[in-house]
Amino acid sequence: MANSTDTTKQNYTAKDFTSDQDVRWCPGCGDYSILAQVQRTFPDLIETAKDKVVWISGIGCSSRFPYYMNTYGFHGIHGRAPIIASGVKIANPDLSVWVATGDGDLLSIGGNHFIHACRKNVDIKVLLFNNRIYGLTKGQYSPTSEKGKVTKTTPFGSVDYPFNPISLGLGSDATFVARSIDRNPKHMQEMIKRVGQHRGLALLEIFQNCNIFNDGAFSVLTEKDTKDDHVLILEHGKPMVFGKNMDKGIKLDGPHPVVVDISNGKYSKDDLWVHNEFADTPVHAMILAHLDDRPEFPTPIGVFRQYFKETYDGGIKSQIEKIIEKKGKGDLEKVLFGGNTWEVS
Amino acid sequence: MSEIKEKDFRVLTSVTVRFAGDSGDGMQLTGTQFSDTTAWIGNDLNTLPDYPAEIRAPAGTLYGVSGFQLHFGSEDVHTPGDVPDVLVAMNPAALKKNLWELKKDGVIIVNSDSFDQKNLKLAHFDSNPLEDESLSGYDLYKVPITTLTANALEGLPLSPKEVSRCKNFFALGLMYWLYDRPIKNTEDWIKEKFSKKPEYVAANTKALQAGYNFGEMTEVFTTRYKVEAAKLPRGIYRNISGNEATALGFLTASVKSGLPLFLGSYPITPASEILQYLSSYKNFGVKTVQAEDEIAGITSAIGAAFTGHLAITNTSGPGLVLKTEAIGLAVMTELPLVVIDVQRGGPSTGLPTKTEQADLLQAIYGRNGEAPVCVLAARTPRDCFYMAIEASRIALKYMTPVILLTDGYLGNGSEPWRIPHLNEIPDIEVKFRTDPEGFYPYLRDKNLSRPWAIPGTPGLEHRIGGLEKSDIYGNVSYDPDNHDKMVKLRTEKIKRIVNDIPDLKVDGDDEGDLLVLGWGSTYGTIIDAVIKARNSGLKLSYAHLRYLNPLPKNTGEVLKKFKKILIPEINLGQLARVIRSEYLIQVEQLNLVRGLPFKVNDILGKITELLGGGNGK
Fold first, then answer.
1. pTM for the model
2. Distance between A312 CA and the closest CA of chain B, angstroms
3. A82 and A2 inside one domain
4. What is this model's ipTM?
């Protein structure tokens, strides 16, 4: 059997990626949707050699994810998933390495590993399940909770400001930064595919509802009557239009975005900001990341930015290859007996 | 040429030299060069670099003094020497700081140029010791090293500062002459080191030669010393430090196991050199990751272990603390991993550049839950090579983390090493699981090791992690009886390693009044103390532990045959505590926690005290 799956197209189905373990998230949890979209998408993404897929996680509700995927999996310790994953990827760059993590795991205890994995551009795919709460420890505020959040540990409201994961990813020079929502399966599938096809560190933030401890955190972005006015779906090369009747748009005045009405003849689509996923600099993506800091602006989902540079794991591999080419494969006797030696006879 | 006077040679069996100067004076380099040349001409030797944590403390101050002690001889040398016979002091502070340890009638060579008002004041000298009577008991040589170096380099296109920086080579040259060592070794080194700066090659070589010629041409020194080559076993030798030996050991384990080496690491004194050495062996496929922190160092290594590499991480005490949770993860996931702890003075930041043995209990016990790991300790710089291989072998065979303890003294210290040929070192057998038939992630073999099934193996997809796993199947399990079983299985697995390690050997009779029991870097000092005690007519035995968990099978039997057990340790009695609790016997302790190796006389004094003035006479 060994290596038989290497190059042959396997026609996997979602079932092939489903493990025999009972899923133990709370009924109604947004994590179910993420698991379903991953399992639906993977047959398109992983056409050969499912044994080359590895899921790594840290600690938290999201981090149970690897147990439910019938792939190699490693449930690590709190915050360390990106660096365990980096170790796996550096050791074997042929593997497809995925990280399932949450807002506490990735951005609080694991913040250091996250920014350095981004900086180094390790070729790992990070799915951030952002529910803006600590779920597994039963309801304390998280580093993405909004200021003023009342939780068990902040009975009078939190006084600290949240992280914006997209902004943090862009600021750490992640080569792929995107966002999706648990309640928009089609969009999430599309994003997971894009993540899977990217070479380099890919961050996909997924707004995920915790119906037990933070229910409705994203309802304005998911409920039928509000979502169209509050979600901006980013598409490369297309003007930024949103609203129930697709009558609103984002126009860029210098570095300042403004919301304009395109139904009354004053502005048309031609006046709007056209999204460029592949911009040379993170400047425009950063403006988008902070678009909804002000209430009159919608929350963007989609790919904020994608660009390419050598991966860390690829860099290590090619450096080794180059040195072997130049110096020849290491000869241990030569190393041991190298330097200043003398003989006692 | 003026006439060259023949000088008297005195033959010595061993000498201890200490080089001391400002942190910026290049004393470590001088000491290392002297050691390499000394090893190269066949002396046995042992070194103790002793430098401050500050990289360049203000010049001339006491806290900026950097020292390098070296003990060499024509007989076996086990320690860096209790008491220096010779002190080379490049400034007043170096003299002040080291004089008290010098042998009563020892030799002092000073750079007399540096004894000006400013430097004397910085070193807290009330009057100039070169002019008052305070050094009258010593054999004092006042050499204007700064001036002589400047004279020698006249005409070279160098700034005064650059000229001054060559003075350590002058001192080295002089010491080469005094102890009859060739300068060629260092000349070659200078050529290679400064190959891109020919003016430095010229300057340093000139300074070196000038120092040598100064000894030869002047009347200052009436005697030269000869230390004949030691009678070492046949073979090819090199001088090696513990950190380099550790790096080479893991490189060898990688070759011998056929597994690529992965080092996840974060720079920390005194362990960083291991990362530096290994990062230069890329043509062996070695992957070194300088991670964002200590935790990342070990967790990246755990990822690499999961993926089928020989995975290691190196650190010192403060880093071992940070790696603790991840070591527990490796215990739980039963992955092979070696953690090297080059111990230093603690607690907290402690004494970063000094040595200590106080991480033993942390290594054996320092984790949450019942988290047994194998713990080994190297005893000499060259032993680091063999223990690195042994740690790798055990980690791979038993699918377990292994902690390898060395320390600052071993890591930085050096000694001659008879280089083994590769065929002297056994292969390390590694089997990855490939057959899906009957595969379960926690189905154990006869050693209680679980199968190593690495990602990329078709049909063996499985999940591991830090949550308790069900026996055999490896699914998450909260079952009370399963947890009890798994806790005991993990412990039993480590216990069984005892069948795979050598018995504790006793040097001397296997019963008697006193057994000195050591572990780690105290090895050489204890040996010398035991030899001295025996020479004075005392009867005693000696044993040294390289395996700390599990302890060798016969340890209890060995200990019970002696009336007294003495355990000297550079901590407050950590092995003593383990031995007491393990074997329910009384042990005597000798504990000095000075950030330095024991002196032979420290241990000899305690031996004499315990044997009450003689048992063998």
1. 0.94
2. 10
3. yes
4. 0.97
